[in-house]
Amino acid sequence: MLDVLLAVASALECMVEGVRFAREAQLPEAAGVLLGLLVGSVLLVRRRWPVVVVLVSIAVMPAEMGGLLSVVGLYTLAASDVPRRITTLLAGMTVVGTLVTTFLTLRQDVATQEDFNPPAWVVPVMSLAVGLVLTAPPVLWGLYIGARRRLVESLRERADGLERELSLLADRAEERAEWARNEERTRIAREMHDVVAHRVSLMVVHAAALQAVALKDPEKASKNAALVGDMGRQALTELREMLGVLRTAEGTAARGVTASDAPERLAAVASRARVPAEAQAPAPVAAGGVPEGDGAVPGAGTPGEGQAEGPSLADLGDLVGQSRAAGMVVELSVDGPAEDPVGAGLRYAARVEQTVYRVVQEALTNVHKHAPGARARVRLAHREGELAVQVENGPCEGDAANAGLPSGGNGLVGMRERVTALGGVFVSGPTDAGGFRVSAVVPASLPAA
């Protein structure tokens, strides 16, 4: 609408000036009206072709037409994205054209007045002033408007870019938070599985053996029943402590536990899954699955000093002793220093030792569940820059396979997650002899004293 109004005003101006020009040039007035209409209507295309508008205004300057056309055209040209050299050239041509036209008109007017004789410099100076006044303001204003428009567009684009970047960062932060929550859930589930599953599995094995000897030897059965009860109470206590850690911050505040303490509390609870072999020995029973001789069972005793960091390689002997106490034939071999057969004097990173311990623990638990009565072999190798462990069991013997325990299918998954989290390699699968093998290699720095 603005362009249409400007074009109408310019056309009316040019039509009036065209009639005057036609009279001076002794042409029909209709020709002047038509010329003015065509010239003034050029403003309709000023936004698309500003150079054409300025060129037309320069072309009709000798006819003293298009004052509004020249001013609006120069403003539009300066405010557009036309290269500055073209704008400067056309502005200079407009100044020169206005200067020449004004100079000739003023000199003719002075010549026709006999009583007015101004100095010679008046006409050129006035012509130059008119040219600058009609050209400089629209050009400067157009340059200012164009620069401001480009600045606003640049700021808008930058704001849009920042908004998109913030949106991406927010989405990425949400993804990281969700990933962290999932990782924490997985870690908590893995810890609960490691702490409870091994203990409860041995409880079931002892309970099955007690059923076999209950009538033959009531005294042994009573002692082992008390042992199973102690194991169950200890497992229940650990489970309750873990569930307490998982409560909301409001629920744990009364216990003096905050959300940030959850990983440490879980690690402390998980460390209670290992107990020294001398803590409590089960009563000897017959060979029907109840242990004979000394050995440790999970859940006996209380965690000693320094155990809050979790299990280590020094506890592998106790772990194997627990399985032996449950009636499993387990062989432990260590490839390392001869004076340190179980690697107790070698120290690796805490996570490395805990991972190896958990792999052995879960592998032996799986033997209790899926291959009761089978022989098992645990091999530990101290190598340069890495620590390797392998747990292999043979096939089930006789009817022992019918005593399988329930399984959630998370044992192998948890072992693989633990090993791969440290950049290690985990392999598991059946053997040709009908048994099962679990192998893990965990990278580690050279052992420090």
UniProtKB/TrEMBL annotation:
GO molecular function, one term: ATP binding
Enzyme class, spelled out: transferase
Disordered: annotated segments: 280-315
Xref: InterPro entries: HATPase_C_sf, Sensor_HK_TwoCompSys, Sig_transdc_His_kin_sub3_dim/P
EC number annotated for this UniProt entry: 2.7.13.3
Segments traversing the membrane: 27-45, 51-77, 89-106, 126-147
Catalytically driven reaction(s): ATP + protein L-histidine = ADP + protein N-phospho-L-histidine
Biased composition (Low complexity): 280-289
UniProt domain Signal transduction histidine kinase subgroup 3 dimerisation and phosphoacceptor: residue ranges: 184-249
GO cellular component, one term: membrane
Superkingdom as given in the UniProt entry: Bacteria
Bias (Gly residues) ranges: 290-304
Keyword Nucleotide-binding recorded: yes
Residue runs in coiled coils: 145-172
Presence of the UniProt keyword RNA-binding in the record: no
This protein's name: histidine kinase
Organism expressing this protein natively: Streptomyces lydicus
